[in-house]
């Protein structure tokens, strides 16, 4: 098992095919990143909204008790 | 133990949103660790160590993304359709949410397969795009995914939208075997399958090994994203239930 | 003003309509492209292919048939399916993988001399992937 490329330039250039290979790789990584971040962000947003709703709910409950 | 496994009780338990939410929460760190490791190893192996192809040179290395993403695009369509069918028959909420998550992820995988294919086509075929049977049927798959996604969101009555989405998903399964056999049925530019179930693969072992690593890595990454999407979906739909509220209270207590 | 919820719903329904109609149009287009407009060199040789209509043909580039012009990018070569061959002319840049003995798919029109004037020449590669050393070894063994 050995490296196919002896220098960084050779690795990036890939005999002129580097443009194609590295574009494919970078777009794939970008899509993978989006696929992970998108649900994590929406998960924490929903959680925040629920907690916000619980806070206002308990406050209005307290207010109602004070009025009594 | 075996009897309870065979009675599908575990599957029934897993279809409870609360149980799935907590179980997948424990699985996510492991799925993330293993899939990222496999993808990193597979990419390094495929891009730097595997030999170039005798005819195509280094452009063949796109195979390490193109083939796994195509696999998941096709398999993911069946996962989505089966979940839709289960939802239609057993009326389990979780399977509809699974279908919705699988639609988004499958559409991304199909786009990736088409995009990497186009980029690979330029150096090997001489064109980015050709209206070849394989490429066109894959494009139809992308539109089917988008159609299911749109269908689920198109109606105020969520249940109605989910049912329609499931029906569209099931109708669209016709396309999957067409994609698979398109290279044999029509005179296409796309080469026939390299990895075969019934006979020996037509790829050298040194090039095959990193490809298999990438395929397993893609499958685990798919499982990871399904868990992530499905958890957000569960939290959204179950926010009025007591177990989600308990969860939030415990979280607040933990953070002080 | 449309109710925002209804407007959103309308947008989704439009997206469904567009995507399903695009899908059906693509199926129809693919079937036409592949079923009616692909001809083998034998079909062209016996006159089954229409003249002056854009069509596709495919086969192997006959070894020793490739001729390049001195001054321009014009080339001509024979495409064969094992039984008959057809003369193809083309002017333009060829894909890297295009060479004698390899498969090709060409798009163009046939004239009354049964010569195909191609506007696009694509290289078709097979499903085999081999490292250069192994391919060389096979060649030396005459496989």
Task: Describe, in plain words, how this protein is organized in 3D.
The complex is a heterotrimer of chains A (68), B (256) and C (143). Chain A is built from 2 helices and no strands. By secondary structure, chain A is mainly alpha-helical. Chain A has one domain (8-67). The model of chain A has no long low-confidence stretch (mean pLDDT 90). In chain B, helix 4 (63-90) packs parallel to helix 9 (205-237). Chain B starts with a helix and ends with a helix. Chain C is 34% helix and 30% strand. The B-C interface holds B 51-56, 60, 63, 123-127, 130-133, 136-137, 139-140, 143-144, 146-147, 150-151, 153-156, 186-189, 191-194, 202-204, 206-207 and C 5, 9, 12-13, 15-16, 19-20, 22-23, 26-27, 29-30, 33-35, 38, 56, 58, 94-98, 105, 120-136.
Features:
heterotrimer, A: 68 residues, mainly alpha, 2 helices, 0% strand, rod-shaped, C: 143 residues, alpha+beta, 2 domains, 5-stranded mixed barrel, 7 strands, 30% strand
Structural class of chain B: mainly alpha
Overall, the morphology of chain B is globular
Quote the average pLDDT of chain B: 90
DSSP E strands of chain B, number: 0
Helix content range of the residues of chain A, please? over 70%
The H/E string of chain A reads HH
**H/E order of the elements of chain B?**
HHHHHHHHHH
Shape type of chain A: rod-shaped
Helical content of chain B stands at over 70%
What's the number of structural domains of chain B?
Answer: 1
Rg of Cα set of chain B: 21 Å
N- to C-terminal separation of chain B?
41 Å
In short:
By secondary structure, chain A is mainly α.
Summarize the helices and strands and which ones pair or pack:
The complex is a heterotrimer of chains A (68), B (256) and C (143).
Chain A: H1 8-13, H2 18-67
Chain B: H1 2-6, H2 9-14, H3 17-49, H4 63-90, H5 93-124, H6 133-153, H7 158-172, H8 175-185, H9 205-237, H10 242-255
Chain C: H1 4-36, E1 38-39, H2 41-45, E2 55-61, E3 67-68, E4 74-80, E5 85-91, E6 103-110, E7 115-124, H3 132-141
């Amino acid at each position: 098992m050995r490296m196919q490329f002896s220098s960084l330039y050779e690795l990036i250039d890939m005999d002129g095919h580097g443009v194609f290979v590295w574009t494919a790789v970078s777009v794939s990584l970008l899509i993978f990143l989006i696929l992970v971040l998108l649900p994590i962000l929406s998960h924490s947003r929903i959680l925040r909204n629920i907690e916000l709703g619980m806070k206002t709910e308990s406050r209005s409950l307290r207010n109602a008790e004070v009025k009594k | 133990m075996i009897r309870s496994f065979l009675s599908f009780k575990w599957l029934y338990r897993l279809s409870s949103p609360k149980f799935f939410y907590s179980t997948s929460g424990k699985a996510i760190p492991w799925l993330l660790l293993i899939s990222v490791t496999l993808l990193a190893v597979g990419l390094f192996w495929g891009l730097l160590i595997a030999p170039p192809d005798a005819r195509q040179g280094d452009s063949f290395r796109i195979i390490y993304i193109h083939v796994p993403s195509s696999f998941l695009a096709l398999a993911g369509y069946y996962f989505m359709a089966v979940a839709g069918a289960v939802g239609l028959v057993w009326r389990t909420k979780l399977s509809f949410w699974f279908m919705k998550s699988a639609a988004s992820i499958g559409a991304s995988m199909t786009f990736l397969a088409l995009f990497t294919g186009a980029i690979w086509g330029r150096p090997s075929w001489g064109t980015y795009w050709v209206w070849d049977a394989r490429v066109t049927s894959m494009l139809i798959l992308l539109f089917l995914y988008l159609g299911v996604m749109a269908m689920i969101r198109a109606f105020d009555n969520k249940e109605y939208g989910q049912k329609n989405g499931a029906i569209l998903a099931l109708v669209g399964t016709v396309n999957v075997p067409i994609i698979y056999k398109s290279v044999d049925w029509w005179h296409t530019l796309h080469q026939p399958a390299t990895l075969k179930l019934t006979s020996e693969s037509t790829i050298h072992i040194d090039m095959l090994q990193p490809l298999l690593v990438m395929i397993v890595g893609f499958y685990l990454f798919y499982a990871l994203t399904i868990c992530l999407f499905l958890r957000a979906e569960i939290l959204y739909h179950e926010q009025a239930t007591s177990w989600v509220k308990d969860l939030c209270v415990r979280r607040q207590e933990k953070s002080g | 003003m449309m109710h925002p919820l209804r407007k959103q719903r309308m947008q989704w329904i439009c997206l469904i309509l567009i995507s399903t109609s695009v899908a059906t149009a693509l199926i129809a287009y693919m079937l036409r492209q592949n079923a009616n407009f692909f001809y083998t060199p034998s079909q062209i040789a016996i006159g089954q292919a229409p003249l002056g209509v854009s069509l596709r043909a495919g086969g192997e580039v006959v070894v020793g048939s490739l001729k390049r012009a001195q001054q321009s990018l014009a080339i001509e070569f024979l495409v064969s399916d094992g039984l008959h061959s057809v003369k193809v002319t083309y002017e333009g840049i060829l894909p890297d993988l295009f060479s004698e003995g390899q498969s090709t798919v060409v798009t163009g029109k046939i004239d009354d001399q049964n010569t195909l004037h191609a506007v696009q020449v694509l290289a078709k590669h097979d499903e085999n992937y081999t490292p250069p050393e192994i391919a060389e070894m096979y060649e030396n063994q005459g496989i």
